[in-house]
Amino acid sequence: MTWQAIARKDFRDAVRSRWLWALSAIFVGLFAGAAYFVGSNLPADPQQPITTDAFLQTLGQLVITLLIPLVAIVVSYSAIVGERESGSLKLLLSLPHSRGDALLGKAVGRSAVVALPILLGLVLAFGVLGVYGVGLKVLNFVAFTALTMLLGVVFVSISVGVSAAASTNRRAMLGTVGLYFVFTLFWGQVRRVLLFVNDQLSLELASVDLMQYGLFIKFLNPVRAYQTLAASLYTDTQLQARLYQAGRLQRGFAQEEIGEVPFYLSDPFVAVQFLLWLAVPIAVGYWVFEQADL
Predict the structure, then answer these.
(1) Angstrom distance (rounded) from CA 154 to CA 166
(2) Helix 99-131 and helix 267-291: axis angle, to 10°?
(3) CB under 8 Å to 20, separation ≥6 — which residues?
(4) Within a 10 A sphere around the Cβ of 1, how many other Cβ atoms?
(5) SS3 state of residue 199
(6) How far is CA 250 from CA 79, 183, 211, 212, 266, in A?
(7) What is the distance, to the nearest Å, from the Cα of residue 68 to the centroid of all Cα atoms in its chain?
(8) In angstroms, rounded to a whole number, what is the distance separating the alpha carbons of residues 57 and 219?
(9) Largest pairwise CA distance in the chain
(10) How many Å apart are CA 74 and CA 159, to the nearest integer?
(11) Are 90 and 62 in contact (CB under 8 A)?
(12) Residues 243, 246, 249, 255: what is their CA dihedral angle, to the nearest 10 degrees?
């Protein structure tokens, strides 16, 4: 297979263009700064120790879910279509590379460009937390690091899939930016449309089944799936993790009425939904790309 050669070249090009160094500086500054904030605000009372879970909650719900998808999109949206417009894609495919090799190699190369700076930033943040005497929950931190890197890779997959399916750079940019806003800002509206609920009929609190179905739709969004899986690391039950960002009234109603979490809201099922975003956009992008006239 030749996708490995394409991935290595893509990664080396990112290093030469200083993408990797710029992203490393951003993530090191962000993560180490958050670690410093948590560590420098340790309570004076030793009966209330702070652990690394406080850092995960500080970082995981807003900054990461807005910044990392955006970074992944900027790095990846022109991965295929940019070379298509410049004509270098025809040269690449004239070598012993298939279109599938080009797509997979670009996806892997751009994933490394996004994931490695995230890893570096979180490793340094872990060191800062240790220096300040924050209680270290190593397994939780490792799981959070892997999950956060995976969030970046998921949005690389989405962006590369769109890039492969788009015919111009402009369309790829509009498509990926549009998806970014849908996933990060407007998914609540999408969910209401899918539930056939309008502003006059607030039915989400009237039916346990409807609430469960609403949560299922919520976690079809890779950003929301990431948030609830991260919350599973520092909440006591799966239900608390599923309702981590719900309003107080909705949270109280659900905890009283739902009881056992249905299988389609369990951690393994939500993880599978999240992982599907790695494969499905690439598969769809490849199907369109394979039929395109270059």
Answers:
(1) 18
(2) 140
(3) 14, 113, 116, 117
(4) 11
(5) coil
(6) 42, 22, 9, 12, 19
(7) 7
(8) 19
(9) 68
(10) 9
(11) no
(12) 0
How far CA 246 is from CA of 70, 136, 176, 222, in Å, comes to: 24, 28, 27, 17
Give helix then strand counts, H and E, for the chain: 15, 0
Closest by Cα among 239, 234, 233 to 256 = 239
| Cα gap 261→240, rounded to integer Å | 10
Helix (H, G, I), strand (E, B), or coil: what is residue 120?
A: helix
pLDDT of residue 120: 94
The pLDDT assigned to 180 comes to 95
pLDDT tens digits, one per residue of 166-221: 989 999 999 999 999 999 988 988 887 777 654 444 444 456 677 778 888 889 99
Residue 213, φ and ψ in degrees, nearest 5: -65, -40
Distance CA 88, CA 265 (A): 45
Per-domain residue ranges for the chain?
Answer: 3-181+278-291, 188-270
Residue with tokens 């500054």: 29
Q: Which residue has the tokens 């460009």?
A: 113
SS (H, E, C) 215-242: HHHHCCCHHHHHHHHHHCCCCCCHHHHH
Confidence band for 140, pLDDT divided at 50, 70 and 90: very high
Between CA 148 and CA 170 the distance in angstroms is 28
